Amino acid sequence: MNSQKPFRTTYSVHTVALSVAQIERALQWYATNLGFELLHRRDYPEERIYTAIVGGVGFQLELIQKDGSVSPSRFLKEDDPPTMLQGFKKVVIQTQDLAALYDTLKQNGVTFVYPGIQETPGI
Question: Residue ranges of the chain with pLDDT lower than 50?
Answer without folding.
Answer: none
